[in-house]
């Protein structure tokens, strides 16, 4: 049984890697670390370097049978709303970084031919540089963390790290940074990931678990050049609320209630039957929340439902916004977003991880998000609408993001270090930081290897993007730009 399979069966990571504890007055309990093995995860991690040298992560060779870029995009469009797929293609064709954002499945296919240590973690599955950002906690404070979990699975931690590093190279190229600066951003992201693992490995377990992204992170990652940009993003995020969105996107209806105003093709009101199906799905959604959230939502009435186009990779999936209004007329908007199977799933068995069928894809997304974030949306849950699984969350929950393709070279380097540190913290909720730190080590061997991979894969993504653009121009695939 692989480590991943043991974890999925209920054993804690330490128990999975190190084996069961021996006897004694206090019996061993599944999921707890063996008493006599204190400190051994670091050595276990070190030993993995013999089987998978850190330098091996530099290698990228396209696997046999790799689909071309257009075929990969067409396959990933299957099951989406057909009328919206040209928008998705248009967004992916905008530049190579945008192409990478929409091609997580193609990259997973490519990564499955590369080396993995066998250490598993709950991974984002789509940890590119634009999937980190700010959002509000329950008290209105701002937290910075990963914020997109559509593809989350239990899998190889290396895949997230390589996707982040590659995305930084591509974002830098789109921004006009020179090649040395692009490579430096990838190199420093991996270095910050590795150093954060070492820091977390030295902390008491509870302190490491609760480590959160605040102003200390900027100091830890030496992100001074990014401070001004972060401050501007934070100021904007504080105003990015449901109430503000509702004020711009709704009007008073003839019945006195509020209703959405069409803003095609991004936002459109739906028919009565569709609206009723979405609204009805909020009843089973309530059962996925902690009980103490229910009195809060009981103070809101449902006023309207609209369909809203979202993201780059997500375009074409079904996504609704539901307008709730309290007794004072204040709005709260929930997003009800279709949850499709992770695009990583078909490629996990090739690297020794279980590809388990999920009971509910919305539950997978929500569970993965809660495993990786220190603080999650208090209204995060899941439901089913007309037989399709959905996740539910607050819409515009003080969200803010940095556009990595608009940063200067110095800022990109800072951003790389920050996101590398955030990724390390997210992984160590389900992988022992001592185990990962033992493998990654003190020197920069892993940094150099992953940076080399990132440059090579960025080159591959640029070629794939060029193929997609050529296919759009020839009429092989339809695209709608500027939406």
From TrEMBL:
Compositionally biased region (Basic and acidic residues): 34-53
Transmembrane segments: none
Entries under InterPro entries matching the protein: DUF2252 (IPR018721)
Top-level lineage group: Bacteria
Annotated spans, Disordered: 31-67
Designated name of the protein: DUF2252 domain-containing protein
Species this protein is from: Streptomyces toxytricini (Actinomyces toxytricini)
Lineage, highest ranks first: Bacteria, Bacillati, Actinomycetota, Actinomycetes, Kitasatosporales
